[in-house]
Design a protein that fits this description.
Distance between the termini: 90 Å
Radius of gyration: 36 Å
Order of helices and strands: HHHEEHHEE
Oligomer: single chain
Number of strands: 4
Strand content: 5-15%
Shape: elongated
Structural class: mainly alpha
């Protein structure tokens, strides 16, 4: 009768044997793959290997995710930066005036968004109200008359 220990020893011996066979076969497989890659002119991206970018769409998404934004604040002691979004780091969390930590970089000035003239806004509201005049407004209130609910 075989014991647990003898079976474990056989398993270990077979694993070593399998590893040596794998190494021997691996050399042949690598040679065949290299031959095929050269024959067909394939690249790492064509094979979908890690680190290779397949297309512009995936590369663009990865770039957007990786970019957290432009740093707005810098710690003068350590040089660490913070974009101003999310939880503030410890070096700026207790600061009453964050302007001392602002990075003085020449920012691109965008033209200010034009605000709608007050006349236009009033005209829009009047137009919306005019469309509702023909319909009766329903209210959520319920009036009770002599035990019967009336809306």
């Amino acid at each position: 009768m075989t014991t647990y220990q003898s079976v474990r020893a056989q398993i270990a011996k077979l694993e070593k044997q399998a590893e040596t066979l794998r190494r021997q076969e691996l050399k042949n497989v690598i040679a065949q793959v290299r031959e095929m890659v050269a024959q067909y002119g394939l690249s790492a991206a064509d094979l979908g290997l890690a680190g290779a970018r397949r297309g512009k769409a995936k590369a663009g998404k990865a770039a957007r995710r990786a970019s957290a934004g432009v740093a707005k604040y810098r710690d003068p002691k350590s040089g660490q930066t913070w974009t101003g979004h999310g939880r503030p780091p410890a070096w700026i969390a207790e600061a009453k005036d964050r302007e001392a930590f602002l990075i003085e970089a020449p920012a691109k000035k965008r033209p200010a968004a034009k605000k709608a003239a007050p006349k236009k806004a009033a005209a829009k509201k009047a137009a919306k109200g005019a469309g509702r005049k023909g319909r009766a407004r329903k209210s959520g209130a319920v009036e009770i008359e002599s035990g019967v609910a009336v809306q």
